[in-house]
Amino acid sequence: MRFMFHVLYDAAMNFVQDDGWAISSHIALSILTSMFPFLIFVTALAGFLGSADLSQEAVQILFQTWPEQVAKPLASEVHNVLTQTRGGLVTLGGVLSIYFSSSGVEALRIALNRAYGVAETRPWYVLRLESIGYVMIGAVALLTLTLSVVFAPLIWTIALHFAPHLEPLDRLVTFSRFGIATLVLLLALVIVHKFLPAGRRTLWQIFPGIVFTFALWVAGGAIFGSYLAEFARNYVTTYAGLASVMIALVFLYMISSIFIAGGELNAALLRARAAAEKEKKSGAVSAP
């Protein structure tokens, strides 16, 4: 208990010293401004692959784990943007969409570099190209996941035709949509913590922060959703037509703070283990 209290206290103090609240604001705004260019790129890519309707399903999957009060108005605005006629992937707009989408990845990189206390030595253009690569891989992965979700009901119907006794599992298959979104979220956290910041860490070293982040995201999302169910009218009164944007920003600010706190927790554990190892070695050397 003393060890855990020391680690949590160290993580909290470093969160403040590393400007965690300010970086959370930067991440929240970067994600919100990057979301629309990213989904525009996803839509263009889906159209290039011959199935533009996949982008609408991709939006639903992307917002699957968000509180309904946050996701519903934002998804509506995204839908309005995606239904506009656009050029293909090779147009200037498509290139700019990819570039601006990478700003969200860069914001996450800055936050984790500060949390882990590492200095970035790679050139800025290498980092930006890497972020663009993450955006393109993420878009392809999202469309691939969407395609599997779209075909899942058809596959299940065929399976029931040949094996009717599987019908009681129908509800389980319905809930699998949320389960898939959850697994994708966990995989994204692993990739971001392991490969995005400078230096290298093992899966065991980043595991506590990932579990901490995911657990608080689930709890925070439920609490924030309950709060909006009671007090969403306050946002409408204060911000009028900007209420949905402000609600999304506050939600993103909350999950960004939790994300940074997860990185700080991992860093605090690494420092605590290093100090324990150093003390153990110094004790062994001083022993007769």
UniProtKB/TrEMBL annotation:
Keywords: Cell membrane, Membrane, Transmembrane, Transmembrane helix. GO terms for cellular component: plasma membrane. It is a multi-pass membrane protein. It is found in: Cell membrane. The chain crosses the membrane at residues 20-49, 132-158, 178-196, 203-227, 239-261. Its main location: membrane. InterPro entries: Virul_fac_BrkB. The keyword Lipid metabolism does not apply. The keyword Nuclease does not apply. This is Ribonuclease BN. It comes from Methylocella silvestris (strain DSM 15510 / CIP 108128 / LMG 27833 / NCIMB 13906 / BL2).
